[in-house]
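not sure who needs this but someone in the group chat was asking about Dihydroorotase from Mucilaginibacter rubeus so here u go. i didnt clean anything up, its just raw.
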Amino acid sequence: MNLLIKSATILDPGSSFHQRVADILIENGVITRIADDIDADTELFDAEGKYVSPGFFDLNCNVGELGLETKEDLHSGTMAAAAGGFTGIALMPNTQPPVHSKSEVEYLLNRSKGNLVDVYPLGTISQKREGKDLAEMYDMYQSGAKAFTDGNRPVQDAGLMERALLYAQGFDALVFSYPEDTAIAGKAKVNEGEISTLLGMKGIPSLAEELMVARDLYLAEYTVSRIHFTTISTARSVELIREAKRKGIEVTCDVAAHHLILTDEALLGFDSLYKVKPPLRTADDVAALVKGLKDGTIDAIVSQHTPHEIEFKDVEFEVAEYGIIGLQTAFSLALKAGLPVELIVEKLAVNPREILGVELPVIAEDEKANLVVFDTDAEWEYTAANNKSKSANSPYIGQRLKGKVLLTYNNQQIFK
């Protein structure tokens, strides 16, 4: 599809047009010209006062397919991604069956061919995500899996994590760690602190996350391996990773967008829409996460999009499932956290691809068009009507948000 984007401010640190206001002409999926004023007989999009950047990329996205399509399938999941400005998503293997062999990887890749949103399945570390034996990591890598994780199940066995790190080295793959010591977290549902005491609920101490971060940093240092921590949530975790980077350990990490805004005080009404894992932490933790993004300790922002049918969330807090949908709100929440727009582009578009080893789109002539246009000042209401997900488990539905994605373009397809 051909398109002329008029008068956009280009935000792309890899482009010679970075921070310039220009017209962008796209023909047959390729940027053919960038100039101050272009006249072409094609569809026009007025982007005066708006920004254009490489399309966003989500490193932590849950889609129900395989097996849980009533929560979300690839069609609805990628529609929600496109609406949120994402042109690429890394799929967590939290499915039934899990993505633990090349069959599941190839199925997901074949099912998502020809989509506006590029899909990257992540394979499991262990068979069936049981944390006992290594999965067929190399076979999955050969079939297209870019990285390996047990999703929302932490790898409790240190020996298994060590073997995974060593094995992945052989073909330069990346291992994700979801840091939680389940023996310490137990069956608690919320952050341990003043709010959990006020609610009369057993809490998950920050220690449960921080012990696992420390363990896996030691393992990465010992094996001289790369490791990525997904959805860190505590101030001490940020400090541990900051110190590890100073020591030269090859570590990256991300944070969920909702952890930059919400604290455990949101739970005072026992609203299960705010039940997430890692749990919402304190205001001090939120401040440390935002600081970690600004100083480069935290490399990326993720949606941690986790859809659920209404019967899994509209129940008592204690038995409700964890998670919220976040693809359509991630950009707005990053803005609400007070992050500069150029930093948001770095954390949502550039760094995630570098972490996963995915080709980074560049806004330059003769390059494939893979981009998003957004307005940092526009307000919009997130409603049931414009929610593209099959699920509706977001506390932001019915609320007005600032920062609107206006257009998403990739693979010769446009969403607006």
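also The mean pLDDT is 96. if thats useful
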